[in-house]
Amino acid sequence: MAKLTPVLAALLVFGLATHAAARALDVSLDDRVDPVPAGDNIVYEIDLDVTSGSPAPGVVVTLTLPPGTTFVSAVRQPDYAPITGDVAGSEVRFDLGEEPSCNAPDLPACNQIWALVNVGGSIDPGTVLKAGVVATSSDPAHFPSDAHTVYTSVGSLAIRTGRLSFSANPGRDRLGFTADVGRDGWPSPNDPLPPTFDISSGVRVRLGGAGETPVIDVTVPGNAFKCSGTASQRCRLADPRVWRPFGLDRLNVFLPYRLMQRNNAAIVVQATNLSLARDIGPEMELTIDAAGETYTDTALFVGKGTRLTYTHTQSKP
Questions:
Q1: pLDDT (tens digit, 9 = 90+) per residue, 48-59?
Q2: The CATH number fitting domain 6-153, selected from 2.60.120.330, 2.60.20.10, 2.60.40.1510, 3.40.50.740
Q3: Which terminus of the chain, N or C, has less C-beta within 10 A?
Q4: This prediction's pTM
């Protein structure tokens, strides 16, 4: 094997040391519920990893809350015992002290922090909540600070993607949308709240230009779905041919395991063989009615031509 020159060897050692230092203290932030209705709670999951071979001294994790939200409480793994968060303005500070190495062979898993935050009832649907987290150590030379940001939609429904395609053949236009339905969060997995989305009593789908008569307005009874899975469920139309005369080709519902990273249901709506007005939109509105609840969101198109591409108004800025 060829020998490294002193300069290359020094650069390699410096690069490895820099890489190791950058990874010594790693923090990430995720919202376990997105979208979240105004007045409900977000559960922010803070992952703190100490990847160094030695503990990190004097660790402080600071969560910066979005405007209009309020810190409620926090718990930490492995037993989800309550931990104290010192609130100063929009910041919540967790003084953790010495943090041991974790998530390595023969080492325990890193202990996550779950922070319960209330979304004020006066926040308008469509608002994007931006939260951030910073982790620091009293030994910044070996444990440089790390930060992460997360965005959460306020509302009962968030249209993630949408496509509207015009065909050269009359009556063959196509429309399809995928959305997430908001569900309640919880302070710990020992005390989960039930999901707010239930298809057993049927699902009504309304889709079309915002403020206009819906292009699709179909009510599907609960027994028309074919579902699979237990801990998590995937449900789809048992016989799509029944619903095509009503303009609906596909209606899929994904109900995740209650403790998955994102505690929300996914909805896929697709229709083909439609006759759509060429000036439909520019806002498209999807409304889902299920079990006495109504979920709705409006999307704006971001592309023109024979195919219009839409994104929900609650997306990351």
A1: 999 988 999 999
A2: 2.60.40.1510
A3: N
A4: 0.78
